[in-house]
Recover the amino acids of this structure.
């Protein structure tokens, strides 16, 4: 029995206790790191106390992760999941933003389409899995369709709301200077709505990443969701299950960071409160 | 020779419907504004003076009566008559330059360049062309909005408490800027305010409104030359008279 949990928790507690002497920047790196270490320690201790033979320890999970990386299996499954999310998301952006702009701007179109959009929106994309497989079979088509559905509603509804919230004074400015038609959309409606649209893209991408894993567990034969199912079915390899979960979390963080870069452009920064 | 008035209000009435009840906002407004004149609409909050300005800008319709500009009834918003808003109507997603060029879309790049550079200079914002409004102070934002209005060379500028959100020192300096620009450009300006001092400092005539439903109580000429001496006895007399009209005490 090794003593690393003891040493690690002492270091972590030391870091937390010394937090008041660290700069704000150091704190926002060191404190989460220390808390993560404590979580890993608790995980290890829980495994020891319960003497589990099924649930993997942090060490076993780490070895499982290395095994996945070395077997080349992981990269293929990551690529499969990202491929479906990318295409489904791009299609949802291409349809959802123009639709949201038009439905949000035109009161009559809004009255006509909003009830249908609101009626379809609460149906979980997961519930569409049988239909997706029926239409597209097992494979990328069904995955892309499901990601399209799960991104389309947040993007469309977010864009609609953004347009309907455009301040009266911008609308009047546009009218005063004679803007109309496409020019009105390009110069006022789209840029005024853009900060909120970007927020809806962020939400949509988050949902897409949740949905793809579930979809791959149920109805696909590749991807990170499938990998989790496969690892469990092929001899209860829970070390691989947990390792894959961590990979999913890490990729989710990266996707969110990437899409948040959109918030930094001069054209949209005005739309976010200073943090 | 009698000059045709620039803006004429003929028996303008406005009634809003709020929760089924009629709310009379403006009652029988008759007013005539000469070309190149600077007129302030002064009154307590909620007296309908902003509504009157919105009607003249074409953003709202009168319930009865009409507004004529150059003898033509106002049909809707028009770049010949530009509005300057209190809550910053400039676009935060566009640079100062792009904001000012908004009304010049039909011109060539070269012509746009000349005009934009000229009006940006006129409002004293040279050097800030590529800045975004977020990085500007409130006073500078209003300069951008004034520049955007001047760029289209309008006949009339409507200003709805344009300096209301600014601190008192910035307000004071922007007023003298505005007077300088007005004298240089010769635009007709209708300026809504609830600030007695502001109206005396700016206007050639002050139109004093009653409480809601807003009607014209009195039209007061300000026969003072610019720059105006805020400490002169005439200034004080007009001020006292305005306070009396508005029904407020002039001693604190």
């Amino acid at each position: 029995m090794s003593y690393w949990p003891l040493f690690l928790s002492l270091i972590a507690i030391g870091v937390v206790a010394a937090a008041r002497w660290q700069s704000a920047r150091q704190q926002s790196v060191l404190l989460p790191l220390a808390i993560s270490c404590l979580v890993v320690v608790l995980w290890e201790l829980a495994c020891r106390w319960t003497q589990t033979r099924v649930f993997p320890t942090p060490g076993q999970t780490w070895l499982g992760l290395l095994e996945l990386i070395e077997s080349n299996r992981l990269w293929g499954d990551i690529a499969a999941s990202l491929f479906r999310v990318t295409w489904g998301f791009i299609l949802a952006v291409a349809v959802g933003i123009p639709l949201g702009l038009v439905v949000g701007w035109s009161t009559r179109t809004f009255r006509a389409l909003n009830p249908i959009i609101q009626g379809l929106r609460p149906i979980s994309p997961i519930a569409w899995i049988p239909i997706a497989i029926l239409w597209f079979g097992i494979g990328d088509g069904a995955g892309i369709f499901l990601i399209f559905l799960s991104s389309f509603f947040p993007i469309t509804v977010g864009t609609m709301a953004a347009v309907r919230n455009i301040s009266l004074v911008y609308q009047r400015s546009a009218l005063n200077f004679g803007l109309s038609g496409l020019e009105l959309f390009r110069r006022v409606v789209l840029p005024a709505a853009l900060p909120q649209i970007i927020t809806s893209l962020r939400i949509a991408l988050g949902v897409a990443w949740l949905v793809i894993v579930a979809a791959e567990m149920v109805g696909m034969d590749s991807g990170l969701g499938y990998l989790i199912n496969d690892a469990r079915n092929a001899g209860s390899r829970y070390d691989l299950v947990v390792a894959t979960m961590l990979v999913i979390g890490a990729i989710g963080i990266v996707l969110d960071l990437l899409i948040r870069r959109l918030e930094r452009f001069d054209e949209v920064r005005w739309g976010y409160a200073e943090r | 020779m009698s000059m045709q008035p620039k803006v004429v209000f003929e028996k303008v009435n406005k009634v809003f419907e709020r929760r089924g009840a009629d709310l009379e906002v403006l009652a029988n407004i008759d007013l005539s504004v000469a070309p190149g004149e600077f007129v302030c609409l002064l009154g307590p909050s909620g007296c309908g003076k902003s509504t009157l300005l919105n009607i003249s800008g074409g953003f709202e319709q009168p319930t009865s009566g009409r507004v004529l500009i150059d003898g033509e009834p106002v049909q809707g918003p028009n770049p010949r008559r530009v509005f300057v808003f209190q809550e910053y109507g400039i676009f935060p997603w566009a640079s100062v330059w792009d904001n000012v060029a908004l009304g010049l879309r039909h011109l060539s790049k070269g012509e746009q360049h000349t005009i934009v550079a000229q009006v940006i200079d006129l409002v004293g914002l040279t050097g800030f062309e590529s800045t975004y409004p977020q990085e500007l102070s409130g006073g500078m934002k209003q300069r951008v909005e004034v520049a955007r209005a001047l760029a289209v060379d309008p006949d009339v500028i409507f200003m709805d408490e344009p300096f209301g959100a600014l601190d008192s020192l910035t307000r004071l300096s922007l007023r003298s800027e505005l007077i300088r620009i007005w004298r240089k450009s010769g635009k007709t300006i209708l300026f809504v305010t609830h600030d007695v001092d502001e109206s005396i400092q700016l206007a050639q005539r002050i139109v004093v409104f009653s409480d809601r439903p807003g009607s014209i109580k009195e039209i007061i000429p300000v026969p003072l030359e610019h720059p105006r001496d805020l400490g002169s006895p005439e200034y004080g007399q007009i001020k006292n008279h305005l306070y009396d009209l508005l029904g407020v005490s002039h001693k604190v």
Q: What stands out?
A: The first helix of chain A runs from residue 4 to 17. Residues 4-51 of chain A form one domain. Residues 159 and 197 of chain A are 5 Å apart (CA to CA).
